[in-house]
Amino acid sequence: MMDFVLRGNIIYSEDKDRLSVTENGYAVCVGGVSKGVFETLPEEYAGLETVDCGGKLIVPGFVDLHVHAPQYGFRSVGMDCELLEWLNRHAFPEESKFSDAGYAAAAYKIFVDDLVSGFTSRACVFGTLHREATAVLAGLIEKSGLKAMVGKVNMDRNSPDYLREKSWRESLSRTEEYIDELKGFKNVRPIITPRFVPSCTDELMEGLKGIIEKTGLPVQSHLSENPEEIAWVKELCPDCPTYGDVYDKYGMLSASSIMAHCVHLTEREIMLLKDRGAFVAHCPESNMNLASGIAPVSRLLHEGINVGLGSDIAGGTTLSIPAAMTLAVQNSKIYWRYIDNKYPPLRLENVFYLATEGGGKFFGKAGSLKNGYEFDALVLDDSNIKTTVDFSVRERLERLIYLGGRSNIVSKYVSGVKIF
Ligand code: GUN
Ligand code: FE
Fold first, then answer.
1. Residue 300 and which of 65, 83, 167, 307 are 20 to 30 A apart at CA?
2. Where are any strands of DSSP class E within 120-184?
């Protein structure tokens, strides 16, 4: 079903500061693409099948710009560590198990099943350094109908023997094989995924730069997440003025790149992100759990930098993007109160934008129900969040974000395809 109409209370972001709310409106999907939202159904679409969602809310599908699929199994364990200790004690040992494709298939099925039944329509996903296991993950997402960019991780230094590629040459050739393996996929694209600067040699970064130039593929990594990590990068790369400059040197800051976290940015890094059009994946839960800090998201939005939200499983414990929205609002208030009151805290409008069009932009025209966008939609039923209060549609959206869960999702469409 690619041509149809959804009728209900429709919300999408007009821009980063404003919602568009159409009560009892019509969202039209033709060929998997939105034709826009209307108060009365235009004559030309009168013949299409109309799904009447009654008083339910209809919103664009949410986007998770940063998630580690292999870490899903141990989420919520090890939350008493900081980043580097957590990587060594929890993330690296678990990721090493994905050398076994059978283990990977079982673990990734659990991850993908939960991703499908949740709020996320599109995601940018880290696998592990293992080519075969990461192709299994890509295959499962491909079949699910969700859209994703999935990366085989590159790491050839400063990691334990049991989770380190033997050479930069091997890392590059496995990456090229993985890219070839995904040819013909419709829903999943490969994404170049150097884990972070500490785990990649200069030779590996130079080689990845070549692959990016040759293929035009996007890139994802981590930037300025935690003070210990930043100090380490300074030691490793004394010639670069900032952490961000290291990625920039290898062509990894562009409108096709996502940098997760960006908690402790220098003025120069903010300028670089803005100038290059790179995307920031804001991961508020992870930044608290790993004691990384609070990212200056209001400032970044004010500067016109591209920002979306990430769950950062398993630095974060939940795949729920509404949970990330809530925490982004709360953290921005703490930031405003204690760190810098120059930019106001985030509002509902701002985080709804981050969760939809803000992150969706990384996929092209996605994350909105405006005319011309890929038709990703969630139909949400809030009737089990009981109250005697008569709320506006905007207030109902806010309650759903703060109080809702999987049980509130009635149906999900991605590019016009009904997932459930
Ligand atoms: N930096 C390098 N690897 C990781 C990871 O797996 N999670 C987080 N949060 N940060 C990282
Ligand atoms: Fe991460």
1. 83
2. 120-126, 147-151, 153-154
